[in-house]
Amino acid sequence: MTRIAPAVLLAAFSLAANAVEVKSPDGKVAVDFDVKNGVPTYSMTFDGKTVIKPSTLGLELVNANDLMDGFNIVGSETSAFDETWQPVWGETKDIRNHYNELLVKLRQTSTDRFMNLRFRVYDDGMGFRYEFPQQKNLVYFVVKDEHSQFAMNGDHTAWWIPGDYDTQEYDYTESRLSQIRGLMEGAITDNASQTQFSPTGVQTSLQMKTDDGLYINLHEAALVDYSCMHLNLDDKNMVFESWLTPDAQGNKGHLQAPAKTPWRTVIVSDDARDMLSSNLILNLNEPCVYTDTSWIKPVKYVGVWWEMIGGGKQWSYTFDLPSVKLETLDYSQTKPHGQHPANNENVKKYIDFAAEHGFDQVLVEGWNIGWEDWFGNSKDYVFDFQTPYPDFDIKMLNDYAHSKGVRLMMHHETSGSVRNYERHMEAAYDLMDKYGYNSVKSGYVGNMIPRGEHHYGQWLNNHYLYAVTEAAKHKIMVNAHEAVRPTGLCRTYPNLIGNESARGTEYESFAGNKPSHTTVLPFTRLQGGPMDYTPGIFEMDMKKVNPNSQGHVNSTLARQLALYVTMYSPLQMAADVPEVYNRFMDAFQFIKDVPVDWDESRYLEAEPGQYIVAARKRKGGDDWYVGCTSGENGHASTLSLDFLEPGKKYEATIYADAPDAHYQNNPQAYVISKKKVDAKTRLKMKAAPGGGYAISIKPMK
Amino acid sequence: MTRIAPAVLLAAFSLAANAVEVKSPDGKVAVDFDVKNGVPTYSMTFDGKTVIKPSTLGLELVNANDLMDGFNIVGSETSAFDETWQPVWGETKDIRNHYNELLVKLRQTSTDRFMNLRFRVYDDGMGFRYEFPQQKNLVYFVVKDEHSQFAMNGDHTAWWIPGDYDTQEYDYTESRLSQIRGLMEGAITDNASQTQFSPTGVQTSLQMKTDDGLYINLHEAALVDYSCMHLNLDDKNMVFESWLTPDAQGNKGHLQAPAKTPWRTVIVSDDARDMLSSNLILNLNEPCVYTDTSWIKPVKYVGVWWEMIGGGKQWSYTFDLPSVKLETLDYSQTKPHGQHPANNENVKKYIDFAAEHGFDQVLVEGWNIGWEDWFGNSKDYVFDFQTPYPDFDIKMLNDYAHSKGVRLMMHHETSGSVRNYERHMEAAYDLMDKYGYNSVKSGYVGNMIPRGEHHYGQWLNNHYLYAVTEAAKHKIMVNAHEAVRPTGLCRTYPNLIGNESARGTEYESFAGNKPSHTTVLPFTRLQGGPMDYTPGIFEMDMKKVNPNSQGHVNSTLARQLALYVTMYSPLQMAADVPEVYNRFMDAFQFIKDVPVDWDESRYLEAEPGQYIVAARKRKGGDDWYVGCTSGENGHASTLSLDFLEPGKKYEATIYADAPDAHYQNNPQAYVISKKKVDAKTRLKMKAAPGGGYAISIKPMK
Question: Is-annotated flag, keyword Hydrolase (chains A, B) (predicted)?
């Protein structure tokens, strides 16, 4: 369907002299905009219920008059849009972008400056952004802070992490808004780089549920050339206000008109599953800018990684050097400590395993010189991204991988030293071209260099996108860890195939994640883009992996399988080590089977913090995959398989928690059964506490 | 002469239990080092006179024990060195590097950390630096400040500019040290980027003269991967202390052992001319690192520049755009304002002029898109360094230049947006290769981006050197304006052929320079490296150049000629416009004749603030050139030409101020005369106030 021509209707929907309204195509979502006492104000309802009470908008500027008040509406236009587009990769083959739009033009009388607000209202929510047209009296301006309010209509339940300029790697806390302040201190666990700003500051996306059953999600879309938004709560009045990430000088954004902010988004429904299936964030982003996307392909991978994260082995090569200088580094003078898994023999082993079991790529961390002192030293020239360790033969290993139909996956840990990364980026990407790498996992562990900048400030957001667009010139896909949380840019730049930007599986090894963690992440972190969660851990008792570890993976094995379905991502790692998988080859079969790209996706059941059940159909195929992840209480339900093609017969292989399974005491107890099913089948399923189940459903021949 | 093997002499020169001394080869300069109450202390004398009273050394660290006291000497070594080397370009063919060295090894008992101090003592001064050997208890450390003192033995006269983290473009003030505080405010004139730090803070190099006739110069050599040093004066006790430039967080340096600071230098003599002829700063730098230097050649150039600086014309192309975005810029939609001298016809005119008069290159500023809003907007993506304006045909003009035996000189104004410059640097240098440019004038006008960093901090010093070493890969020479003042790195990287980094000729157009300015600059700014002063202005009344201007060039025409001799530089511009030179072709002949590279140089007469008379012999030739620049009082003297080859006959062409010349009232009054001279000749010469003279002395056939 194509775009309907815009209709210019001055105050056609006006409710009062200065007010305008726009509704969703189905009429259930309504957004009202007004200028009250010169202050831009909006509100939102869903099905007649208040989602956002009247909330003000505006920007405070540095050394210039603020854009907070003194406004009049000088024009408004509404239009409708309806188009279906196909993502390069995704949960569904088609995505419908259907909205009604309201563009309000404001003029600040005393300064003769213009500011527009654009609202796009969908059946499942809305987004709005500020726009600053080219104009005489507003050219270059510096944002002191943005003051976009989101006034909540009650003391909602929220799933939140502490607001922080440098990390998102926190467990989620479920609490009422009024409890955030008291729970904040306990929610802040240690991180290599962290900077909180308020006892009631939280990050987006923020998932909430009202007492009358509305689910509300706040986030942003299309974060380009701007500072990342957090939300600061006035917990007397239950009003959230945007709180941007500062730069090294404390300013929050440098803009040049014509300019626009990212979209501030509100997804709403009375059905939790709509939070998960919403495409609002992607739809607000610009279409793909690449003419050729044939080189962008979802990736299933294994890797030399958990041996270090879980197994306690090293990225480094030697303990002989207290510190290294890449300019003068000579490993031939040192003694290897023998705990370096990124070596020729071990990598070949992973390549063999990947080839045998149908994986696309093998990630190798610790392949390059410099790891001896990479962490915590604010080191500028920390890596060169090109020189391998003496025991990593980059040519031989890539040739070997290719001979087996597998690729190596590159690793660029930047250690937060971003000028250094940019200086080496061209050579690093050239090296990847030379040896046949087409994807890179990048990282930004530790405090940023340029010192004073934060991970989520405008400066770094510009860098992350630069790394992606430069990679595209080399037909390279990027999976950026510790970068800013995604905001749907993967629609525009689909070689951004993943981010971490949340607390991932590695924390199961460090400190454990809450067993409900993966029942929250899709509501929160996965809005805006997939996560490289790296699931698939089969050995939960970390002491068996590393005698020095106290860790425990708070998940059953069956739930680990389910995550390949419930945690949608075009990039999926089977993160454990081959030796462990070899002991559970029957369970591993699910990981081998599960696709990473889909034609259809259905969220069958969902409640944040409790359970998620999803079903997906392989892209270009007829097989379906179902996954369930649950929290502390487990989850029992009856699944209807009515998404299957009527009249067709399938064989379902069910990987479920054993009846006595439990994430803590008995995680590896699973039962695999086969069953003939069809669209009429109803399955009684039960997930253990911190457990789940995974089902592959393949048409019978 | 070759290096004498080091002699390890533990306390061989010791004066007391803990004290050591090292003297210059001729014995006149003595440096004593001691640890008094655990504090490293040094002092210096020249010919028995105190140059530096006992002064302490040390570093204050961030979040770590300071390196200020608690030291013992655990070893010392002395050695001697004597080697003559040939610079790629310079004032003389040979440079003798002859010193005695003292290396003192200190241990801080309580922390078991080691710090060395290395002193090199020359006949004309000394340098010292801190060294931090590889060691267990000092690996990564952050400098809060360096506390190197230079205690003066009296209220010396000094020629100083205000200490500033971002600019050196101040007129020099001549005063006693005790007067600095009272004169500071008046000394601070406006600049696009400036940050003072103390009412008694000054920059290096600092030139002083004691009441008993000693000249003392303080500076630094080999500023690599460190913050630039200013001097803060305790004006009760007349003690200078190092004051480094902070980064965005207020820290002053990030070091990783093994590390060394730059050399802190003290040049001393009872003869002012020795200040100018000293090679101490170059000698302390590392030898040239390039194996091939055949592509590095001194340059004499003209350029499209004064038309804008003096003439009020524009770098930009149009007035139609309040601001530009390079991504979407389309000049075809705009109307050119017609004041853009960087256009095809005009540039060809300069090429013709250069070819006719034997100049090597033609600088063109304003050739590239983006100048409409480059200044004062803290704009990140301000230039792309590649795309010409519609009226600048980069291929045609370079071909045209080459057909005439001339090159164009590239211009990279960065507007202080340094990440942007580094992102484009490879492509920018490639473009230069493609069109046959081999030299670039770069600029850093305005506040730095990354915001919060300063022009002279460690971050930017690293960048300036990066730009030079990257340029070398393309066989490109660099002339960096607004960069950190040079510290002799041109010995190591001789493609760094110039810096501005001081108040240059452009200020004659803006506000006028003091008529004595060029009698001070060689004492101060020229220590450490040449200056692209861009002299040769023949029209002093700026109103004749630009009706809107009130400016006046505070110099006689004859003195402008002299500057090509007195302001040594391998890069010299004839900065005025061809139309003006055409009116004074007889005087212009000197500029045409004067070389830019020398076998010999003599400073005949010199007094800071008063006069400088220099004589130089062409590299590989027999002709000599003499120049005199004088201050407010003019200068009369009798010159001995005994530097000429005995027995040889020469013809001297003397370009002198007319008897009634004066920089203010009658600057263009000059007299040209010819004279047969030889080594026995004595010339009675007179320079007007703010005047001078230039003499070319060519062997008679």
Answer: yes
